Amino acid sequence: MRTQVAIIGAGPAGLLLGQLLHLAGIDNVILEARSREYVLGRIRAGVLESGAVELLERAGVAERLHAEGLVHEGFDLAFGGGRHRIDLAGLTGKRVTVYGQTEITKDLMDARAAAGAKTVYEARDVELHDFDSSNPGISWTQEGGRKALGCDFIAGCDGFHGVSRASVPPGAIKLYERVYSFGWLGVLSDTPPVSEELIYVSHERGFALCSMRSRTRSRYYVQCTLSEQVDEWPDERFWKELRARLPEDAARQLVTGPSIEKSIAPLRSFVAEPLRFGRLLLAGDAAHIVPPTGAKGLNLAASDVHYLAEAFIAFYNKNPGELERYSSRALARVWKAERFSWSMTKLLHKFPEEGDFGRRMQLAELEYLATSRAAQTALAENYVGLPL
Ligand code: APR
Ligand code: PHB
Fold it and tell me: What is the dihedral of CA 238, 243, 245, 247, to 10 degrees?
């Protein structure tokens, strides 16, 4: 078997890359370790920058997104018992769209199936070969036998725990990392959202976030410690804790109900540099992780893929130089989103080790944000997404 671009990973990064390459007439095969059902069962992010929406439009997969996605023109910051709206549209002229990553993944899988492009699910023990030569390849185990695929390039879109980044010789890659001392406990429930827009809450008990997937499905998070387990959080305890962190008016309006998903995710900032190693190119969570506070993870995967698809298209149009630029172009945007996600995380979470002084610094910054149009503009500009 041979293809032009072998893509490892059928998350949003791999699937979107596959679709953009397919539309440009570039043959590609996706290898995914898990089953289609497993990939679609994961509950992940939900906020899309307008640039990511435009990219999904260009990929021809935005029909359901436009029909079912919720366009948001602002969000609330809550602290000290009050709520302060950040008017994204008024400050930047841009909006964000709330549409679950799970739905995007499904739309991309459907488009791929309709295009007749090949995806191998449940590809076990994927190995990368000879990406430092002009003749790389991939091998894997499927139905008990070892399979092989030759290609021009390998796109490593296999997430943080994937095999692609791990296959790079340690001396060729530099890793930057910050691990936070807390996690997010998330609950999905078929209850109407507490508010039409998102509420990010900085509270003495810890951070909380009110988000949604639709007008009848809510997504809520509370900051928790890393030692806590999901089974220590029956629904009643979760709702009580969330309510305790919300401003009074929101707490009164909160509609509770049985959870349909509940999980704890650790928070991490991580960047690998560079993103290209000969004919292996990394994109999405394989290359970088942001804490979810800025809603940037999925959007960064989309912008990487935008640059990477452009670079492949240029290569096959006899302009190989674009591939050399991929890493620096993508990383320039990645680092700015890393900074924003880190600063939002520091602003809104409880850091016991920072003491009372640290808390007063957070409150002073939040007060400044609540009253300064300049500060709000800087926040809004980053939240809606910096230009590609
Ligand atoms: N071989 C093949 N596939 C693999 C391997 C492997 N060794 N390891 C991991 N994978 C698959 C995973 O099963 C997953 O489906 O790669 C895919 C990676 O997908 P994601 O983790 O969703 O990463 P990405 O596509 O970069 O999407 C980034 O996802 O988690 C969010 O916050 C993140 O929103 C961001 C987005
Ligand atoms: C979500 O809806 O899951 C979500 C929204 C905003 C964030 C993080 C997660 O910042």
Answer: 160
Whether 220 is catalytic: no
Q: Please report, as a single letter, which amino acid is at residue 96.
A: V
CA of 260 to the centre of ligand 1 (A): 23
Query: Is residue 169 flagged as an active site residue?
Result: no
Catalytic option among 99, 180, 200, 221: 200
The per-residue pLDDT for range 84-135, each reduced to its tens digit, is: 999 999 999 999 999 999 999 999 999 999 999 999 999 999 999 999 999 9
Give backbone dihedrals phi and psi of 16, rounded to 5 degrees, phi first. -70, -40
Residue 195: strand, helix, or coil: coil
Cis-peptide into 192, omega within 30 deg: no
Q: What token pair was written down for 80?
A: 């000290």
CA distance 313 to 152: 13
Question: Strand ranges (DSSP E) for 18-101?
Answer: 28-31, 47-48, 70-72, 75-79, 82-86, 96-98
Taken in order 230, 232, 237, 243, is the CA torsion positive or negative? negative
Length of the chain: 388
Q: Measured between alpha carbons, how far is residue 228 from residues 223, 261, 292, 293 in Å?
A: 11, 17, 19, 20
